[in-house]
């Protein structure tokens, strides 16, 4: 053998990575470099045919962001979305996955398919139905509140309630995907661990805390990272439900970026995207730290 | 290892852009108009048209192909949803067809990219409604030809108005008492629905702004959003929301017509396209229950002018055929034929004398309205300024800021966005 | 582990189920309502009058065979590509120590985090310049190995017992053999998850196919549905909902087929 084992492993590793590496070099690297470059220029939609004839303005786009009150409002809304939405979605999805996997023996297929339906339902239908559920006069939510003698608000136009309403809707939509991931994760926990715990007299909560959650850590990390990224980039819910109204209370960073691209402010929108990227990296690093396997 | 990647990326991109700087354009000399040859069109002409226009344009093109046996028209229908994105990306990549339909408010932006050919001088601008032709003119040069028109008039519930004993309004004061009567005596929850913010609210507001004598830009192209006349208009417009005659909540697309049909909304401002939507939802018997009149006059009559323009791209393979096809589509008889196919109001004035349109009383209201309709300035930053106005209307309608504060902020934001020239 | 499950779990899950499926049910019911009823206020569940007009319009006006073929071809290619390539990379990232592993994982995570909007136009310029506009390759290649899939497979393969793989290595098995014969067979739940996530994302993708397709015969279902149901100033909700129902059927079939695999994992083989 002429090759050392380390070199051999490196060759094998990169061979397995080849498809990704090739596509990365061909399709991903260029656009990332180009768009990052854009963020240091004053490029606008009107420069699209002559992208090299633009002014280099250094960090000006980035500096401008922090005095843009609409961006700051969008950033705050997005933070709320993540802080409230990520735990809510994960807890709901985990509860459903545990319920289906451990709590029931019949109708599992019905439950699995049923809880996945929001993921596949057209966003337009979802939007119509949610507006209808949240309708101030004839909505089901306010109907139920009415039974309890509470006069329900107009959820989507009340400046304080619009964003929470969208968060609940996003959790409802995102739950199915995470449920599937947790179901898959639950399968890799050996049954023998539970049997041993049962012999030791551990109750259901103890088993959840001591076995299920620790063993589910890789799936939880994946779920937390994916949901965090998804909610930091949340776009569809405000886009179809409120378009940022009322008074920018549901304006999110991604929606604002979308608007800025639409207005042709390519440089500014690119700068905003890379600020968002930096925040996503930060959040992901924190999540990796928090959910690192304990050895 | 991981830290080095962003650094490398950063350096490469900086090097890439450091080599170039923005060249100031040498003079603002108007572009020379394109020329169209004599004789018949030949070769393949590729056309993008959005939505229903794209679905049905092929039927009009058949007539063109009969007259020009050497030419074939290949229409690709493009969804309205995402059309702006597709056009922008295609211009950037040079993947454009010969001809495309373009929403009138996008003209400033796309013309400014330099991707569009100037309109040949053989097109007679006087044949079109002036407000529509204005949408094609960017910096003094026309970059396209109006294809179909959109303007806004007042839809109202005839039956509710009769019940309330009021006649359709002709002045601002009458509109106010009309809405009040539709609400109090006609039983409509909203006497009139005036969009109070959200995308496109400016299209409902600006007719009132223009009626008050306000303008969006002055003769030098500077924004004039904070003027006494604009203030009069915004105060009048939002008085409907503050007095509960119109809801200040955003309606979902389609809900306005649904609520109009069910009697919750007594009147609203919209384009001719809502006729088919109303009849589809209300059924044929609903035809006698509603009417449409020109918008009431303030100091002057005015409305919004929009619709669709046809443009030819600079890198068109068949520019000659493209302009000939557009010339065909601008012929009064073809414009009238298009109305019978797609119900798009013609952009060419003389087409309105065609029997199919002349006997249509409903449509003639919009025909009269078009004569006084005005277009927003065709500048690249228009959509962004429009969003500022939408946001200002929402604040004023909800009463979270005073009209004077709203206008001052609107003017400052618009000034800082600039006209993109 | 109780053998039959607990009654209260059934009650809670069923209550949740009703809340969760209601929009889907409404979508089904409303796709057979006349236009006026769909957006009527107050909204209704049951159609007052059942009509098949939206479905008829869908099947008559749209060249469904073409759009469905395109959608299926793209989604299947993207899904298969991701299942193969993401698990390959996921395997070496999780179980093989080699030079550049951290760099590769960093790139994968980086790509996962770059907002798609910012690279959209540059990517299209690139794809168009290499002549892939209006081709299946242009629709498929940029999505063939997605970072989210690599990350998912790395997370799951990382959970497989090291002893298993080390034992095979000691026996002299090559990495390709270990991957194909030992790792992949144990990845059922993860592969099923990856398959459904990738398929659904590709199936619903709108903006990229819209921009890449230059002629109508390259349109996918979402592009065609948007074309026929959304106007400049109005939306045909009937057609939109009927289309949404037709589009969801293949995804649901795939999910129902795959979901059995979510619960067939290594747990049954009793490792560790």
TrEMBL record, chain A:
<keyword id="KW-0812">Transmembrane</keyword>
<protein>
    <submittedName>
        <fullName>Binding-protein-dependent transport systems inner membrane component</fullName>
    </submittedName>
</protein>
<feature type="transmembrane region" description="Helical">
    <location>
        <begin position="266"/>
        <end position="286"/>
    </location>
</feature>
<comment type="similarity">
    <text>Belongs to the binding-protein-dependent transport system permease family.</text>
</comment>
<feature type="transmembrane region" description="Helical">
    <location>
        <begin position="215"/>
        <end position="234"/>
    </location>
</feature>
<feature type="transmembrane region" description="Helical">
    <location>
        <begin position="74"/>
        <end position="101"/>
    </location>
</feature>
<dbReference type="InterPro" id="IPR000515">
    <property type="entry name" value="MetI-like"/>
</dbReference>
<keyword id="KW-1133">Transmembrane helix</keyword>
<feature type="transmembrane region" description="Helical">
    <location>
        <begin position="161"/>
        <end position="184"/>
    </location>
</feature>
<feature type="transmembrane region" description="Helical">
    <location>
        <begin position="113"/>
        <end position="133"/>
    </location>
</feature>
<dbReference type="InterPro" id="IPR051393">
    <property type="entry name" value="ABC_transporter_permease"/>
</dbReference>
<feature type="transmembrane region" description="Helical">
    <location>
        <begin position="12"/>
        <end position="34"/>
    </location>
</feature>
<dbReference type="Pfam" id="PF00528">
    <property type="entry name" value="BPD_transp_1"/>
</dbReference>
<keyword id="KW-1003">Cell membrane</keyword>
<keyword id="KW-0472">Membrane</keyword>
From TrEMBL, chain B:
<protein>
    <submittedName>
        <fullName>Extracellular solute-binding protein family 1</fullName>
    </submittedName>
</protein>
<dbReference type="Pfam" id="PF01547">
    <property type="entry name" value="SBP_bac_1"/>
</dbReference>
<dbReference type="InterPro" id="IPR006059">
    <property type="entry name" value="SBP"/>
</dbReference>
<keyword id="KW-0813">Transport</keyword>
<keyword id="KW-0732">Signal</keyword>
<feature type="signal peptide">
    <location>
        <begin position="1"/>
        <end position="18"/>
    </location>
</feature>
<comment type="similarity">
    <text>Belongs to the bacterial solute-binding protein 1 family.</text>
</comment>
From TrEMBL, chain C:
<keyword id="KW-0472">Membrane</keyword>
<feature type="transmembrane region" description="Helical">
    <location>
        <begin position="178"/>
        <end position="201"/>
    </location>
</feature>
<feature type="domain" description="ABC transmembrane type-1">
    <location>
        <begin position="68"/>
        <end position="258"/>
    </location>
</feature>
<comment type="similarity">
    <text>Belongs to the binding-protein-dependent transport system permease family.</text>
</comment>
<dbReference type="InterPro" id="IPR000515">
    <property type="entry name" value="MetI-like"/>
</dbReference>
<keyword id="KW-0812">Transmembrane</keyword>
<feature type="transmembrane region" description="Helical">
    <location>
        <begin position="139"/>
        <end position="157"/>
    </location>
</feature>
<feature type="transmembrane region" description="Helical">
    <location>
        <begin position="103"/>
        <end position="127"/>
    </location>
</feature>
<feature type="transmembrane region" description="Helical">
    <location>
        <begin position="237"/>
        <end position="258"/>
    </location>
</feature>
<feature type="transmembrane region" description="Helical">
    <location>
        <begin position="72"/>
        <end position="94"/>
    </location>
</feature>
<keyword id="KW-1003">Cell membrane</keyword>
<keyword id="KW-0813">Transport</keyword>
<dbReference type="InterPro" id="IPR035906">
    <property type="entry name" value="MetI-like_sf"/>
</dbReference>
<feature type="transmembrane region" description="Helical">
    <location>
        <begin position="7"/>
        <end position="29"/>
    </location>
</feature>
<dbReference type="Pfam" id="PF00528">
    <property type="entry name" value="BPD_transp_1"/>
</dbReference>
């Amino acid at each position: 053998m002429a090759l050392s084992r380390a070199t051999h492993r490196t060759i094998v590793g990169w061979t397995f990575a080849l498809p990704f590496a090739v596509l990365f070099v061909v399709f991903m690297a260029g656009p990332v470099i180009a768009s990052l470059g854009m963020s240091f220029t004053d490029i606008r939609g009107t420069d699209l045919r002559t992208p090299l004839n633009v002014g280099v303005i250094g960090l000006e786009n980035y500096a401008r962001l922090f005095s843009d009150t609409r961006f700051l409002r969008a950033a705050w809304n997005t933070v709320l979305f993540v802080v409230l939405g990520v735990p809510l979605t994960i807890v709901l999805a985990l509860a459903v996955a545990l319920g289906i996997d451990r709590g029931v023996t019949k109708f599992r297929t019905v439950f699995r398919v049923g809880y996945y339906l929001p993921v596949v339902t057209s966003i337009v239908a979802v939007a119509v139905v949610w507006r209808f559920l949240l309708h101030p006069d004839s909505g089901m939510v306010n109907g139920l509140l009415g039974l309890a003698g509470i006069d329900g608000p107009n959820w989507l136009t009340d400046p304080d309630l619009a964003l929470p309403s969208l968060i609940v809707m996003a959790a409802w939509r995102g739950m199915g995907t995470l449920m599937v991931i947790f179901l898959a994760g639950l399968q890799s926990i050996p049954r023998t661990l539970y049997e041993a715990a049962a012999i030791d007299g551990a109750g259901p909560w103890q088993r959840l805390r001591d076995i299920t959650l620790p063993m589910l850590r890789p799936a939880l990390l994946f779920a937390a990272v994916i949901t965090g990224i998804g909610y930091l980039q949340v776009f569809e819910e405000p886009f179809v439900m409120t378009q940022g109204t009322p008074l920018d209370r549901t304006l999110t960073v991604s929606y604002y970026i979308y608007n800025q691209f639409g207005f042709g402010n390519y440089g500014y929108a690119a700068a905003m995207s890379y600020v968002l990227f930096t925040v996503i990296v930060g959040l992901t690093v924190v999540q990796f730290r928090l959910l690192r396997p304990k050895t | 290892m991981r830290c080095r990647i962003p650094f490398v990326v950063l350096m490469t991109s900086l090097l890439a852009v450091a080599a170039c700087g923005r060249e100031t354009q040498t003079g603002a000399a108007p572009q020379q108009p394109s020329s169209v040859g004599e004789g018949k069109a030949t070769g393949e002409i590729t056309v993008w048209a959005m939505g229903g226009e794209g679905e049905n344009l092929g039927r009009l093109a058949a007539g063109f192909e009969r007259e020009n046996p050497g030419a074939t028209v290949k229409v690709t229908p493009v969804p309205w949803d995402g059309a702006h994105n597709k056009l922008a990306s295609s211009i950037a990549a040079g993947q454009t067809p010969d001809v495309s339909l373009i929403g009138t408010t996008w003209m400033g932006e796309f013309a400014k990219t330099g991707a569009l050919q100037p309109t040949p001088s053989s097109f007679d601008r006087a044949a079109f409604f002036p407000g529509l032709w204005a949408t094609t003119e960017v910096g003094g040069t026309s970059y396209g030809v109006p294809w179909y028109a959109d303007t806004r008039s007042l839809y109202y519930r005839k039956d509710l108005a009769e019940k309330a004993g009021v006649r359709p309004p002709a002045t601002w004061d009458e509109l106010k008492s009309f809405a009040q009567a539709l609400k109090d005596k006609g039983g409509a929850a909203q006497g009139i629905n005036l969009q109070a913010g959200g995308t496109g609210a400016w299209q409902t507001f600006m007719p009132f702004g223009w009626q008050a004598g306000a303008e969006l830009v002055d003769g030098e192209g500077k924004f004039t959003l904070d003027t006494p006349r604009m203030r009069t208009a915004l105060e009048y417009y939002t008085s409907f929301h503050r007095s509960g005659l119109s809801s200040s909540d955003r309606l979902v697309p389609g809900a306005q017509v649904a609520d109009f049909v069910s009697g919750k909304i007594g009147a609203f401002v919209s384009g001719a396209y809502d006729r088919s939507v109303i009849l589809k939802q209300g059924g044929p018997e609903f035809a006698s229950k509603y009417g449409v009149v020109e918008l009431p006059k303030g100091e002057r009559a005015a409305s919004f002018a929009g619709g669709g323009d046809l443009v030819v791209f600079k890198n068109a393979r068949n520019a000659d055929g493209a302009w000939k096809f557009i010339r065909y589509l601008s012929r009064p008889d073809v414009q009238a034929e298009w109305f019978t196919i797609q119900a798009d109001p013609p952009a060419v004035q003389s087409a309105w004398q065609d029997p199919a349109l002349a006997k249509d009383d409903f449509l003639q209201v919009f025909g009269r309205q078009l004569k006084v309709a005005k277009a927003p300035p065709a500048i690249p930053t228009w959509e962004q300024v429009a969003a500022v106005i939408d946001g200002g209307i929402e604040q004023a309608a909800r009463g979270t800021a005073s009209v004077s504060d709203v206008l001052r902020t609107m003017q400052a934001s618009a000034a800082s966005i600039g006209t993109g020239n | 582990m109780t053998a039959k499950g607990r009654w209260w779990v059934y009650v809670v899950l069923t209550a949740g189920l009703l809340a969760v499926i209601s929009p889907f049910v409404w979508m089904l019911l409303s796709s057979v309502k006349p236009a006026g009823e769909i957006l009527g206020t107050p909204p209704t569940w049951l159609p007052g009058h059942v009509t098949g007009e939206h479905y008829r319009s869908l099947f008559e006006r749209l060249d469904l065979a073409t759009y469905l073929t395109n959608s299926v071809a793209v989604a299947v290619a993207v899904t298969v590509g991701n299942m193969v390539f993401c698990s390959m990379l996921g395997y070496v990232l999780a179980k093989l120590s080699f030079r550049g592993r951290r760099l590769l994982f960093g790139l994968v995570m980086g790509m996962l985090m770059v907002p798609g909007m910012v690279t959209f136009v540059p990517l299209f310029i690139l794809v168009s310049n290499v002549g892939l506009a209006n081709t299946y390759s242009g629709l498929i290649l940029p999505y063939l190995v997605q970072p989210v899939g690599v990350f998912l497979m790395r997370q799951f393969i990382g959970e497989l017992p090291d002893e298993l793989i080390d034992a095979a290595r000691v026996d002299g098995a090559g990495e390709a053999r270990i991957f194909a014969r030992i790792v992949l067979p144990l990845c059922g739940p993860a592969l099923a998850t990856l398959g459904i996530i990738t398929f659904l994302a590709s199936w619903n993708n709108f903006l990229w196919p819209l921009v890449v397709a230059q002629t109508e015969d390259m349109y996918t279902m979402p592009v065609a549905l948007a074309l026929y149901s959304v106007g400049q100033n109005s939306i045909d909700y009937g057609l939109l909902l009927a289309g949404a129902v037709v589009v969801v059927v293949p995804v649901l079939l795939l999910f129902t087929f795959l979901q059995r695999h979510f619960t067939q994992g290594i747990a049954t083989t009793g490792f560790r």
